[in-house]
């Protein structure tokens, strides 16, 4: 089996696959005006997704994260999970969701083969949650998380984007939430994208500030698993849950990159903030193109840069995080 290793010596066992650019939320930092369809070609169909995953699996990819937009808006999500879980070599299938449909569907997703779950929850206060997301879905999301915790997932994680002036004072509340729950909350530093400059400048908070508060409260940095995402994870003996910090503006953040991305329309993105994409879709129409697909993926990996250009204000071709799954 071939291996996905770039010219900087980084290996890539982890694919983030966007299933749709659509989202039913209006998060202030991402889609404040809601999703606007552009009339371009449809998102990857089930057969295309299966061929794509088989191609990456042939190169040693073992973990797939299904993202969006909001992936639960796909009516065929259950079939996608079942199909991906049947691909030889894929041992971990995760889903990132805004959680609004969790109470209705999470049990079926688990039974279909989903092994890990990430749920967006930017605040533990229902009113603040409504302000940030534009929707009053706090009760459904939190109920869905509680349900998921009893379904035997390998991990259940919560994603919270750090927003100065909105949720940066909630660390004590999160401590209490984590005291008895086997869940990891990941605080994600707000990232500048193509269309959120003003919001970014108003609400950006350096993740290191929260990290220092954790250390001051006795939380200890944990060793990073080989196929883990970008979070630096902390644990505390008094709490069952954990806290992860995703700090894209920190020094050497990209040195540990281990993931590639494919958009909902089939473009390979070597970096979330890269300035180009490589279309894989023409090679997803027939099983006969499998070897050509594998060769294209392997060849393009040589173009992956050592790091992003966020410090220079370079956001690449990503207009907002819903367009590629964050």
Report on the architecture of this protein.
With 326 residues, this protein is α/β, with parallel strands linked by helices. The chain has a single domain (14-323), classed as TIM Barrel (Alpha-Beta Barrel), CATH 3.20.20.70. Helices cover 27% and strands 17% of the residues. The protein has helices spanning 46-57, 77-85, 102-112, 126-133, 138-148, 171-178, 197-203, 207-216, 290-300, and strands spanning 14-18, 63-67, 92-97, 116-120, 155-162, 184-189, 220-221, 232-235, 242-246, 259-262, 267-269, 278-279. The chain has a 12-stranded mixed β-sheet with strand order 7-8-9-6-5-4-3-2-1-10-11-12, covered by helices on one side. Helix 1 (46-57) packs across helix 9 (290-300). The radius of gyration is 19 Å and the shape is globular. The chain starts with 13 loop residues before the first strand and ends in a 26-residue tail after the last helix. The model is unreliable at 306-317 (pLDDT under 50).
Fill in the keyword field for this structure.
326 residues; alpha/beta; TIM Barrel; 12-stranded mixed beta sheet; 9 helices; 27% helix; 17% strand; globular
């Amino acid at each position: 089996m071939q291996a996905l290793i770039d010219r900087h010596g980084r290996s890539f066992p982890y694919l983030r696959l966007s299933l749709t650019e659509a989202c039913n939320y209006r998060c202030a930092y991402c889609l404040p005006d809601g999703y606007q369809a552009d009339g371009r070609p449809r998102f990857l169909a089930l057969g295309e997704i299966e061929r794509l995953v088989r191609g990456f699996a042939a190169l040693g990819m073992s973990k797939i994260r299904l993202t969006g937009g909001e992936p639960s808006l796909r009516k065929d999500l259950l079939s996608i999970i079942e199909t991906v879980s049947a691909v030889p070599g894929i041992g971990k299938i995760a889903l990132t969701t805004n959680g609004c449909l969790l109470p209705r569907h999470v049990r079926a997703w688990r039974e279909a083969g989903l092994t890990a779950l990430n749920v967006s929850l930017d605040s533990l206060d229902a009113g603040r949650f409504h302000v940030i997301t534009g929707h009053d879905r706090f009760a459904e999301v939190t109920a869905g998380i509680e349900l998921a915790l009893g379904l035997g997932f390998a991990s259940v994680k919560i994603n919270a984007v750090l927003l100065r002036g909105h949720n940066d004072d909630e660390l004590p509340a999160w401590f209490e939430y984590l005291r008895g729950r086997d869940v990891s909350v990941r605080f994600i530093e707000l990232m500048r994208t193509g269309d959120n400059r003003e919001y970014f400048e108003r609400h950006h908070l350096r993740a290191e500030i929260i990290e220092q508060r954790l250390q001051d409260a006795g939380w200890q940095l944990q060793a990073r698993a080989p196929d883990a995402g970008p979070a630096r994870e902390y644990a505390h003996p008094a709490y069952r849950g954990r806290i992860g910090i995703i700090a894209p503006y920190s020094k050497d953040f990209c040195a540990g990159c281990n993931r590639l991305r494919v958009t909902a329309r089939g473009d390979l993105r070597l970096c979330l903030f890269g300035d180009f994409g490589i279309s894989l879709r023409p090679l997803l129409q027939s099983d006969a193109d499998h070897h050509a697909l594998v060769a294209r993926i392997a060849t393009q990996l040589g173009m992956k840069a050592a790091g992003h250009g966020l410090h220079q204000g370079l956001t690449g071709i990503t207009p907002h995080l819903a367009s590629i799954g964050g």
